[in-house]
Amino acid sequence: MRVTTSILALAAPLLAIAALGACHKAEPAAHITPIQPTAAASPAATPGLWIERVSDRHGSRVTKLCLDAGAATSLASFNQSLAGHCSRHDMARAADGSWHFSTSCDMGPAGKVATEGVMRGDFSNHYVVEARSQTVGAAESAADGPGRVVADVRRAGDCPSDMKPGDVVMPDGARSHLNQLTGHA
């Protein structure tokens, strides 16, 4: 599930988040407009090199992604496959421009995950995703319980010459491509 968590924050502005994080009920945001989770209704990230710092109970990890319209389509496909595991997948925009989401997903061996969270930022250069989750029934009992994820995602400019659209540099330095990672949803 680490790969999934690693690219979920990148998928978030393209579609609603499926399984980032939280059963802990957040305060209802004032002036929220519910939306259907579609690519057109959700915020979209600007093409370029995105650097994502994800912090959770396991520590902090940095992932780099070269994004263009094709990579955005790949992320959208990944998110839709994750959403297929979810009985609840709600997303709403607040008057302040933030996006609030709530999901309830059966991730098979990874357990049943309930999530509440918010995305804030301009989505063209920088955004933050904060989520709380509750996992039950995971094959590895250590995965059960509450969780908190914070993803700080920044556009660092154009993709460098050694990265093509869809290329991902994982936290351990390994290189992959979205097409390879999204097959693990």
Describe this structure in words.
The protein is α+β, with helices and mostly antiparallel strands and 185 residues long. The chain has three helices and ten strands. The protein has helices at residues 2-11, 69-83, 178-181, and strands at residues 32-35, 48-56, 59-67, 86-94, 99-106, 112-121, 126-136, 145-157, 167-169, 175-177. A ten-stranded antiparallel beta sheet has the order 1-4-5-6-7-8-2-3-9-10. Strand 6 and strand 7 form a beta hairpin. Helix 1 packs across helix 2. The longest helix has 15 residues, at 69-83. It is globular, with a radius of gyration of 15 Å.
Calculate Rg over CA atoms: 15 Å
How is the main sheet built?
Answer: 10 strands, antiparallel
| Share of β-strand residues | 35-45%
Distance between the termini: 9 Å
Overall residue-averaged pLDDT value: 75
* Number of E-type strands: 10
Please state the overall shape, judged from the principal axes of the Cα atoms: globular
Helix content: 10-25%
Helix count equals: 3
Sheet with most strands: strand arrangement: 1-4-5-6-7-8-2-3-9-10
Order of helices and strands: HEEEHEEEEEEEH
The residue ranges in which pLDDT falls below 50 over 5 or more consecutive positions are 1-41
